[in-house]
């Protein structure tokens, strides 16, 4: 009887070990993710841009060039251009007032000032959306690649508000043409309808919901006007306010939670509440 009990206990112990091994394996599987998503979660860039980095051979995994579709985990050593990246523990979003002359790029041999060099912050951040070199105003900087990905999707129709100064007089016809959407011959598209109102002098405010390259300059040109300056003052619920040029502030609390909600992120949990 005692031998039977010992044999049963031994078999039970072996079964438990096997179950623990399988459970551990499944747990490990859950911890893996696609390489492009891993890079996005580390705040390197969006998943789309991560795929480009991988294809250009700028990403290695454990010393071997990474591949699109490859799965990685926190245990793997992932390098981007020789610098190791690791999963972030907390999301960071900054509102930055970009001055004129700053280029929205992480690498540009011809740029005098890169936006990633303008902010001294202990966590690696990248920009969510661009502004032309000669434009000023609000840019969001973050280490959350998923947030960047969500904000870049034109289908979400995220609002961005600008104050624009032009060289010619602003007529009612100009405002109406802009508001109804403008056909851009060089791109073969018509812009979406927008909200626009005249301010003092040759200035107007416009709210766009798409991200066509140099959209305001192209729209004004098509309507017979020329842009002198562009200043972005709002992105969704985040306002530039009286933030000085080349200064930044951290987005936190309810303001951050609302940003995640408006961006179309499914995860509006503790990441956005920190």
Written account of the structure:
The longest helix has 30 residues, at 2-31. This protein folds into three domains: 33-85, RNA-binding S4 domain (Structural Genomics Hypothetical 15.5 Kd Protein In mrcA-pckA Intergenic Region, Chain A), CATH 3.10.290; 93-152 and 239-273, Pseudouridine synthase I, catalytic domain, N-terminal subdomain (Alpha-Beta Plaits), CATH 3.30.70; 159-235, 2-Layer Sandwich (Alpha-Beta Plaits), CATH 3.30.70. Strand 11 and strand 12 form a beta hairpin. It is built from eight helices and 17 strands. It is an alpha+beta fold. Helices cover 31% and strands 24% of the residues. Residues 19-30 and 267-271 have low confidence and may be disordered. Strands 7, 8, 9, 10, 13, 14, 15, 16 and 17 form a nine-stranded mixed β-sheet that branches. Strands 3-2-5-6 form a four-stranded antiparallel β-sheet. Helix 2 crosses helix 3.
Order of helices and strands: HEHHEEEEEEEEHEHEEEEHEEEHH
Domain module tally: 3
Query: Fraction of residues in helices?
Result: 25-40%
CATH topology of the largest domain: Alpha-Beta Plaits
**CATH secondary-structure class of the largest domain:** Alpha Beta
**Are there runs of 5+ residues with pLDDT below 50, and where?**
19-30, 267-271
User: How far from one another are the termini?
Assistant: 60 Å
Regarding quaternary structure, how should these chains be classified?
A: single chain
Structural classification: alpha+beta
Query: Which radius of gyration do the C-alpha atoms yield?
Result: 25 Å
pLDDT averaged residue by residue: 85
Shape: elongated
Estimated share of beta-strand residues: 15-25%
Query: Which CATH-level-2 architecture of the largest domain?
Result: 2-Layer Sandwich
Largest sheet properties = 9 strands, mixed
Q: Please report the number of helical segments.
A: 8
Look at the structure and name the CATH superfamily of the largest domain: Pseudouridine synthase I, catalytic domain, N-terminal subdomain
Number of strands: 17
